[in-house]
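Researcher: Predict the fold of Fe-S cluster assembly protein SufD.
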Amino acid sequence: MKPAPSLLSSAFLQPAGQALPAPLLALRKQRGAALVDMPMPTRKTENWKYSSKYLKLTDEMAASLPTTGKTGSALAVPGYKVVFINGVVIPEASEYPDLDNILIQRFGDLSEAEANELAERLDSTLDAKAVQFAGLNTARFEDGLLIRLKPDAVLDQPLFIIHEVTADASGSAFPRIFVEAGRNSQITLVEEFISSGQEAVFVNSVTEFTLAEGANVTNIRLSMDGEKVQHIGATGVTQQRSSRFESHCVGFGGPLRRHDLRVRLEGKGAECKLNGVVVTQGTQHYDNHTTIEHVAPNCDSEETYRNIAADKSHAVFNGRIHIHPDAQKSNANMSNKNLLLSTGAEIDTKPELEIYADDVKCAHGATIGQLDKESLFYLVSRGIGLREANVLLTMAFINELVAQIPVDAVKDTVQIRLNQFFDQTFQEV
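Model: Structure tokens for Fe-S cluster assembly protein SufD follow.
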């Protein structure tokens, strides 16, 4: 007789804070009811095959973390910012742009009509079956941020979203963002995930983007949570005609890091570019799952992810491109390259290409390898120390993607963290 499957603890479905408009409270209640008896992922759950053993949720983590604390962002934020602490917006620590054609509102400040409209659109960019934990975020969020760009609106500098978790006690946080980019609008949104404290906590974040015709959105996601933070995140995107979405995801490992990125190209001529860099060490784990749906014809997608794993850490990449029957003249390319820095590290990669149209140009590939010994020998023979040689070759492996990050403050922060990684991984000989 097979053992009964492990279910999501009912402790995670207890009512959260009530400071939201009635339509959003009703949505939360509906999603919570749908999650009763939700099976937890196991190794037999295909999209959790390599990550299920790292997911360790306890009842102590179910309680909402308090919304007190102070931000400790590693970014030198040059302008606009919104600060979340434990999933709740902190207005007094934020600096909103003062522009008539760009509206930024907390969920709790929405009118009932606005909240009703938002409730109908939340989760519209994500597949509930494929991204199981996005529904838990909807059942538990206590606050959120709605960003609306009117047609032709252009934000003159990046908007930084600082997500901080204070792990002074065990608990959970559920940050939520919904971005509506109107026709021909432009925005660069930077999300930084950080934490303080040493207790085990659970973060479940969801960000959604809807791009109208001609909209141009750049999203930078910087994952730097602490060593006791399990973080499951999801980003959903829908694109209309001639819109462009650009994503730069940079992640440093932890006990469990998981990010699902799903993009639907629904309008003719839409295009997306997805870049990702992951670095793990010790016994850390990081899992990236991406999906690009080519629904409309004449759409372009370009995806490049690179992983580096050291010590006994584990990195996972699963990338899927789906070309629908009507998506003729699609152009899609996916590349995943992986670097193992020790014999104890593990990287699993699974590129997928599913094509149902005949007039397309598609390619995908994946490689896993180690630093080239001949290249190391060449550098050392030219008087470069072994540690510096290792650093040079490793940095060269990902520098192409780091250099493409369009915000200098983020590039500087990433470089500092990478230097810390190099210091811990490579020792002078």
